[in-house]
Amino acid sequence: MRVLAVGVATLDIINHVACYPAEDSEIRIISQDSRAGGNAANTLCVLSQFGHCCYWLGTLADDESSRFILNNFKHYEIDSSLAVAIAGAHLPVSYISLSRQTGSRSIQHFRNLPELAFDDFIQANLADYDWVHFEGRNIDELGRMLSWAQAAELPIRISLEIEKPRPDIERLFDRADVLFFSQIYAEHKGFKDAQSFLVAMRQQCACSLLFCAWGSLGAAGMQDNELFFVSADKVDDVVDSIAAGDVLNAALIHGLGMGYEADMALQQAVKLAAKKCRQQGLDNLLL
Q1: Could you read off the pLDDT of 162-198 as tens digits, one per residue?
Q2: Cα–Cα nearest to 232, from 167, 287, 277, 186
Q3: Is 158 part of any domain?
Q4: Res 24: pLDDT
Q5: Residues spanned by the domain of 114
Q6: d(CA 271, CA 48)
Q7: How confident is the model at residue 19 (pLDDT cuts 50, 70, 90)?
Q8: Rounded to whole angstroms, how far apart are CA atoms 127 and 84?
Q9: What band does 90 get if pLDDT is binned at 50, 70 and 90?
Q10: Are 146 and 126 in contact (CB under 8 A)?
């Protein structure tokens, strides 16, 4: 399967700490490492391990951090030839505190790099892909991209990740075939569980496939009017939860793209996300 992902790439600077510090306190960093990050980029890193042909479209700077990202794409055999380089800019950076006590992560994100514009997106020939996945951000430009992809009337599937509440993002929901919601978004809307959230979403959008992750509890899915929930494997010692949601989304794209029933695809995705939490980074995730 040929997968194009549209979104951001970041440099993640990860500070490993014994526990997350209280406000106005000092804590020693046990170790530090840098990784390539960004939701769409992470999702492709997993899809590449499944054996899919992966392509990334987004903006980069002309700095050393962007060269680090390009090397990471090369490592995972992800084609980034469509990337738009912006002179004089700097790659976004996420400063992440990763707690060894709980495995949870807290993120401070710095960004001043312009996001992908519609005029850059339409340089891609959508007929070259089987699946196009979008991060739910930069809403006005993204709306034009989704409409363009729909209007092409090609045999491609379109997925949209809704991680954070953003103004007017709801008007995009009917422009994708598959929607991936986060717990953060659902809770922002006042829901306390994934199932009731998806039931409510079914009344608001015509999209046939909806999914909502719910952290260590698992994830829910809804196909047409059929609701299902998959409980997560218990992870007693969480090592690293960074990108677990991206892993879930990637495994769902893989499963659905390979023709699995939606509930079966979700079962495998939840298992893989739990496995991710037991290891550092994304390398060798399928071994």
Answers
A1: 999 999 999 999 999 999 999 999 999 999 999 999 9
A2: 277
A3: yes
A4: 84
A5: 2-277
A6: 18
A7: confident
A8: 20
A9: very high
A10: no
**Opening angle at CA 254, ends 246 and 197, nearest 5:** 55
H-type alpha helices, the chain = 39-49, 64-75, 118-121, 139-151, 183-188, 194-202, 244-257, 262-277
Q: What is the mean pLDDT of residues 204-211?
A: 88
144 burial type by CB count under 10 A (0-12 exposed, 13-18 middle, 19+ buried): middle
pTM of the model: 0.93
Per-position DSSP letters for 12-55, written without gaps between them: EEEEEESSPPPTT------EEEEEEE-HHHHHHHHHHHTT-EEE
DSSP 71: H
Of the pLDDT bands very low, low, confident and very high (cuts 50, 70, 90), residue 258 is very high
Q: How far apart are CA 280 and CA 264, in angstroms?
A: 26
What is each CA distance from 158 to 178, 207, 285, in whole angstroms? 6, 11, 25
Give the number of domains in the chain: 1
Backbone CA torsion sign across 175, 179, 183, 189:
positive
3-state percent helix, strand, coil for the chain, nearest multiple of 5: 35, 25, 40
What CATH number does residue 100 fall under?
A: 3.40.1190.20
